[in-house]
Recover the amino acids of this structure.
């Protein structure tokens, strides 16, 4: 392995040459640059700061070829402040000394990020749980084990201490819990029940989007079942169960099948996916709809510390109920 570094104001660029063995990009960089944490390196890869052979690679699992030239640019790290506790109303389905299950409303961001520095679920949890909130998730994500997109509603579990955080993380890593969603999609998926599989990674043409990729990415499987046809066949209410947990997984998988989630502004579900004309009631309701019609309605798992089996259900929020009602007219 050969490496050099060039430092200029605000960033450091590392240039490396791989050895004779193929290795995952994240593992290769972690070995070559032990002073940078594995999580930091993963974030740099996913945010487009790594080039291999002159090509930007955003997949940590990408296999580095022997003798490949790799360039990593590391921006100067800024100190992160702990999220400010901000009291907010929480719809709590369950709480004990170890964890809390919340029904997240659409529009609420899970943790602070650029563009959303506060008024997030983490800020609300910091106010509600106080100093007990688990710190394993990092400064910006205390207690967070999994996420829901800002405009996806539904059930989410968070850890209140490090022991619970570690146990929940193991459940998610082993896919040893049940997560089910309701998605209103365009058209009628065929067959009416099945599995959608395909590695998910960053869309090479749009860094804000994910996509099914043929190289790299992470394996993903979504089980789906059509529950109901609505709006004279223009829409279908689909139940989706995750066998993996990738960013935007349901939205990406359904879109790849030609059945985008109704209202999805990122993956094309906003403008339809069927040649049939929407009935008047559905068309009028759609004019008022401004997010993806996706709701995490079921969550079930064994308590990571007590072993008790816990299961929770959540009815779709009022706005989604109204959209479904319009589709039934």
């Amino acid at each position: 392995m050969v490496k050099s570094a060039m430092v200029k104001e605000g960033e450091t660029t590392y240039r490396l040459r791989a050895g004779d063995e193929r290795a995952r990009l994240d593992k290769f960089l972690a070995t070559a640059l032990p002073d940078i944490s594995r999580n930091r390196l993963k974030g740099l890869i996913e945010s487009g700061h790594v080039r291999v052979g002159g090509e930007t690679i955003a997949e940590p699992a990408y296999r580095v070829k022997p003798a490949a030239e790799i360039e990593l640019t590391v921006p100067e790290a800024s100190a992160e402040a702990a999220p400010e506790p901000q009291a907010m109303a929480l719809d709590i389905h369950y709480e004990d000394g170890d964890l809390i299950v919340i029904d997240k409303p659409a529009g609420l961001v899970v943790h602070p990020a650029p563009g959303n520095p506060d008024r997030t679920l983490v800020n609300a949890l910091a106010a509600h749980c106080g100093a007990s909130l688990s710190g394993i998730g990092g400064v910006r994500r205390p207690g967070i084990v999994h996420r829901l997109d800002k405009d996806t509603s539904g059930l989410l579990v968070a850890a209140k201490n490090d022991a619970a955080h570690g146990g929940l993380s193991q459940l998610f890593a082993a896919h040893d819990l049940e997560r089910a969603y309701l998605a209103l999609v365009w058209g009628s998926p065929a067959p009416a029940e099945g599995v959608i599989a395909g590695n998910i990674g960053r869309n090479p043409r749009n860094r804000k989007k994910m996509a099914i990729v043929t190289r790299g990415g992470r394996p993903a499987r979504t089980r789906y079942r059509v529950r109901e046809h609505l709006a004279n066949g223009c829409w279908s209410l689909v139940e989706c169960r995750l066998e993996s947990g990738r960013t935007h997984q349901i939205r990406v998988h359904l879109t790849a099948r030609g059945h985008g989630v109704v209202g999805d502004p990122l993956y094309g579900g906003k403008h339809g996916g069927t040649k049939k004309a929407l009935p008047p009631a559905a068309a009028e309701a759609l004019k008022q709809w401004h997010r993806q019609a996706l709701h995490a309605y079921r969550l079930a798992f064994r308590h990571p510390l007590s072993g008790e089996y816990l299961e929770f259900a959540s009815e779709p929020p009022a706005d989604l109920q109204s959209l479904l009602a319009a589709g039934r007219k």
Notes: The chain has a mean pLDDT of 89.
